[in-house]
Amino acid sequence: MEDQKLNEILHAIADKQLTVADAKHLLKDDGFVDLDFAKIDTARQKRTGYPEIIYGAGKTADEIIGIVTFMLEAQLPILVTRLDEKKAAIVKEAFPQLTYNERAQILSTELPETIVGNIAIVTAGTSDLGVAEEAAVTAEIFGNQVTRIYDVGVAGIHRLFARIDEIRSAEVVIVIAGMEGALASVVGGLVDRPVIAVPTSVGYGANFGGLSALLTMLNSCASGITVVNIDNGFGAAYSASMINHMGAQ
User: Fold this and answer.
1) Exposure string (b/e) for 133-166, b if CB count within 10 Å is 16 or more?
2) Residues 199 and 163 placed together within one structural domain of the fold
3) Enclosing domain of residue 48
4) Where does the record place the PurE domain (predicted)?
5) What string of pLDDT tens digits covers the 249 residues of the chain?
6) Domain check: are 125 and 243 in the same one?
7) Is residue 224 part of a domain?
8) Is 15 part of any domain?
9) Is residue 243 domain-shared with residue 120, that is, in the same domain?
10) Beta pairing class for 79-81 and 106-108
């Protein structure tokens, strides 16, 4: 509980405007708020340093509105991931101050004024941009500087070398690739920074929906590579942000 709220309760008791029984009720904190259809984790930011994030897929627009209504009073930033354009339009009617990024499928509050470090987000192809923008916007909302380096896959590896100095200057590198997923190994062998690899579901039939890229990245001979799940740009950005902020501290 915030000190200001605690002081207000204590002063109200002293002024006999609040009974002890009522004060006990106000001081009770279970660490979550039950909205029937969702239990919002109000203590997550204190435990982890990051607020609860709303996963938009599978939730109705009304459910998201109900969650955001409470969270706007309790925490910042607000970040809703995997939100399609139709539901986003409904939610934005209720909260016009929120911003929707169609490519990233993210609805969020404005970017923070304070940013730290630099996370380079490197993609193999333009087809990977949906996952890349999910990572980029997430990282920016969490207060990180982001450098986007897109479409530099191994089929034209000279494109990667043209941007290698920018990649090496980042504190953390997120590499996003589908097909066979070779780009993560190449980058991992060229930089002295943590590399977080994201396999995408981009590819033809034998890609198996991203499984081939996932296995390639997991079996990379380049050291220092951490692999997240298929198409998980959000998870990569979350981990990269934690590393980046540790370095800034």
Assistant:
1) bbbbbbbbbbbbebbebbbbbbeeeeebeeeeee
2) yes
3) 31-108
4) 117-249
5) 456 666 666 677 777 666 776 666 555 556 666 667 777 777 777 787 788 888 989 999 999 998 888 888 776 788 999 999 999 999 999 999 999 999 999 999 887 777 888 999 999 999 999 999 999 999 999 999 999 999 999 999 999 999 999 999 999 999 999 999 999 999 999 999 999 999 999 989 888 999 999 999 999 999 889 999 999 999 999 999 999 988 666
6) yes
7) yes
8) no
9) yes
10) antiparallel
Do 186 and 164 lie in a common domain?
A: yes
Shared-domain flag, residues 169 and 140: yes
Tokens coding 85: 């354009």
The last residue of a domain, from among 84, 108, 132: 108
Tally of domains within the chain: 2
> How does DSSP assign the chain, residue by residue?
--HHHHHHHHHHHHTTSS-HHHHHHHH---SEEE-SS-EEETTHHHHHSS---EE-TTS-HHHHHHHHHHHHHH-S--EEES--HHHHHHHHHH-TTSEEETTTTEEE-PPPS--EEEEEEEESSGGGHHHHHHHHHHHHHTTEEEEEE-S--GGGTHHHHTTHHHHHTSSEEEEEE-TT-THHHHHHTT-SS-EEEEE-S-S-GGGGGGHHHHHHHHT-SSTTEEE--TT-HHHHHHHHHHHHHHHH-
Q: Within a domain: residue 196?
A: yes
Domain membership of residue 42 (yes or no) is yes
Cis amide bond preceding 77, omega within 30: yes
Q: Can you read off the two tokens belonging to residue 174?
A: 């997120």
